Amino acid sequence: MSVPNPPPSPSPLKVALLIVSDTAFRDPTQDRVLPVLTETILSSSSSSSSPSSSTPTWTIAAQSIVPDDIGLIRHQVEEWCFLGGPKQMNLVLTSGGTGFAVRDVTPEAVGPLIERVAGGLV
Description:
Helix content is 32%, strand content 18%. By secondary structure, the protein is of the alpha/beta class. Strands 2-1-3 form a 3-stranded parallel sheet, with helices on both faces.
């Protein structure tokens, strides 16, 4: 009698982190958000993995810092969401560019890309 092979461990979901900031784009050492998001995601991933599996739930597969520019923000999100292949992410988290300053344009950049609005989540 042969013992069936256990099912393969699922691949971790790919997360992309996008920081939108003129300041951090000019000098990445000024960014304080990326390390916090990275730590939060990785610690959440390792604590939510199945006890019988050491495969993390998430992996940070991409990260980028762009200036407050609608075209650059939108281009990066489109690349991660719509091109398919290895660059396609399961989740894109953005930080920055959501205030009321003239150059804060993240909502305007990503709004047209949203196919299904989930009020309160987006």
